[in-house]
Amino acid sequence: MRQAGSVNETPSGTKGRRVPERLVRVGFIPLVDMAVLVAAAEQGFARREGLRLQLVKDVSWSNIRDRLAFRQFDVAHMLSPMPIASQLHLGSNPYPCFTPFALGRGGNAITLSVDLYREMQGVAGLDGSEDALTNGLALKQVVERRRQTGRKPLVFAMTYPFSSHNYEFRFWLAAAGINPDADVTMTVVPPPLTVDAMTARAIDGFCVNAPWNMIAVEKGVGRMVATKADIWPSAPEKVLGVSPEWAEENPETLSRLVVALDAAARWCDERRNHGDLADMMARPDHVGAPSEMIRRLLSGQLTIDPDGRTRQVQSYMTFHDRNANFPWLSQALWIYSQMVRWGQVPYDEAGLARVRAAYRPEVYRRILAASSASVPAGDSKVEGVATEPFIDGRRFSPDDIPAYVAGFDIRNGLGSGVAE
Amino acid sequence: MACRLARNLHLPPGWMGMRSESFQDLTRDTHTGQRPLRVAIIEENGIRAAILVDGLREAGINDVEVIDTMTNMLRRLSTVDPDVIIIGIENPSRDVLEQMFQVSKLVSRPVAMFVDRSDGSMIQAAVEAGVSAYVVDGLRKERVKPIVDMAVSRFNAFDRLQRELLEARSELASRKVIERAKGILMRTRQLSEQEAYGLLRQTAMNEKRKLVDIAQSVVTAASLLEK
């Protein structure tokens, strides 16, 4: 087993001999949470492993999925629920892929239109310092009022049906007593169009990754009311989606890639590298947003209100720390529980097996066991313990999903009372 | 569920029943291949849309609807009730469609073209041309292939057209620059038009650069020297 080490170590895979570089084609959507991929490609981590990463920008998650399926990409920057959906045969092109490596946590936030937030302030007397749950409860009051006065339901957007954004937005709404399928209208808006859609008053709120929330605030149209860290700090955000055929044909390349990404992820977490990282990310062929804004996002210094109010969010974006790259089965199963909760898929034992095929901790462990990384001994854990709680305070134990789902008052699957 | 979908998409009640029926009809008819296919094109560029519609008509497919804006896309699609949806791969609205397919519990859900991936070269051609298609599940591939083939060739034709237009524009711009450079040389060095052109060409050859680049240098230099 080759060593994964710090930046200064001699790369073991290429030591003493010249190995032709292997090309890996990587699809991505321009978002700050692709940082590990950019760092691996630009900061020499891939080259050290004898790899050349070709980062290919795309416009939609559907394209990412399809181009992986049609073998135009070998691996891709993916939403954490996408490999699970693919194994469960959900979606219009369910090409079963898997992930051996998560690209980090965090970066998502929920932003409401300034008009809606000011209405919440008026109704609930918010002074702007409230936490995410209090904001949700204020929104609940506005939703009730709108219903009583016959105004049409609020329209909220996320970026893809099988996205962390969908499940986090719904989790936050439901924690505040709002039924996302009955009390509001949930719709999809692609990330680069979210701010425009809000400006045009086509949507009243959205959940999306960085930098779009901050852009909405700085443009004066949006008010951030919750971040991923408020809803569930452990949530895996993007993962490395891998084509199974490619992995089978190129096991050595996959191993080297994971080693390179592990080193890149450590580098991304180092505060002193944030300036360089922000500059790389700012380039138009990557995210194409101002470097200064990306730097603030990396450090969790968020401008949350156009009036200038800021908030420092601990671990707003984490790329490596606390096993952020480990593909926890329990986190995959939590995502599955939300798919069941919202009626995207019925619960069954066969589904559990498919989820296990999507997240592959044993691959991570095999490749990185000999490295300096602290590799968890188990594949699953109880999620939502004291240090990293869910916003509703409940814990998730992966061995009883039906009970967990049944414990939600607001749900749309598993024999819910919601009229179909 | 039908009600929920109708409410989410702001659809009139009852449309869902209509749709399911038509899907059943379709499933029956595909075995004989007789039912005329209805195609929806989601395309904001009017010229590309027109080129596509034109091509499909030539291929004998007359039932074609163009949806040119994202606003009301879902409502329009449900009214049109297409068997095949053609949408450019560069259109981010593909993710919006994905949500629509997920929310609606149709008898037969549309799937991305040739999910079985048995026709690799065809998929390759489509993706390279920037075409993606959704097809009602169960529709025979032989019936859809000519439509996708047509879309691919028309997307390529449109790209060619765009390229030619761009080239023509830059050609025109180059010619203007060369004319101006000739004029400057004729005036400042008392040359005939032919001599001025000859000098530009000779310089380009000597410096292994393009004629238009030399001409541009002359124009830039002249503008710097002007009082």
The CATH class of the largest domain in chain B: Alpha Beta
Specify the structural class of chain A: alpha/beta
**Strand percentage of chain A, roughly?**
5-15%
Number of helices, counting only DSSP H or I runs of 4 residues or more of chain A: 18
Distinct helical segment count of chain B: 9
The oligomeric status of these chains comes to heterodimer
- Major sheet size, sense and barrel closure of chain B: 5 strands, mixed
CATH topology of the largest domain in chain B: D-Maltodextrin-Binding Protein, domain 2
What gross morphology of chain B would you assign? Answer: elongated
CATH-level-2 architecture of the largest domain in chain B: 3-Layer(aba) Sandwich
Structural class of chain B: alpha/beta
Name given to the CATH architecture of the largest domain in chain A: 3-Layer(aba) Sandwich
What is the number of domains of chain A?
2
Structure description:
The complex is a heterodimer of chains A (420) and B (227). Chain A is of the alpha/beta class. Chain A has helices spanning 35-42, 45-48, 61-69, 82-87, 114-124, 132-148, 164-175, 194-199, 212-218, 228-231, 244-249, 251-269, 274-282, 291-298, 329-341, 349-358, 361-368, 401-406, and strands at 22-28, 51-57, 75-79, 105-106, 109-113, 155-158, 185-188, 205-208, 222-227, 238-242, 301-303, 310-312, 317-318. In chain A, helix 7 links the parallel strand 6 (155-158) and strand 7 (185-188). Chain A is globular. By secondary structure, chain B is α/β, with parallel strands linked by helices. Chain B folds into 2 domains: 2-163, D-Maltodextrin-Binding Protein, domain 2; 170-225, Arc Repressor Mutant, subunit A. Helix content of chain B is 63%, strand content 10%. A 5-stranded mixed sheet of chain B has the order 2-1-3-5-4, sandwiched between helices. In chain B, helix 3 links the parallel strand 1 (39-42) and strand 2. In chain B, helix 6 packs parallel to helix 7 (141-189) and helix 8 packs across helix 9 (211-225). Chain B is elongated, with a radius of gyration of 27 Å. In chain B, 31% of the residues are buried. Chains A and B meet through helix 3 and strand 7 of A and helix 1, helix 5, strand 4 and helix 6 of B.
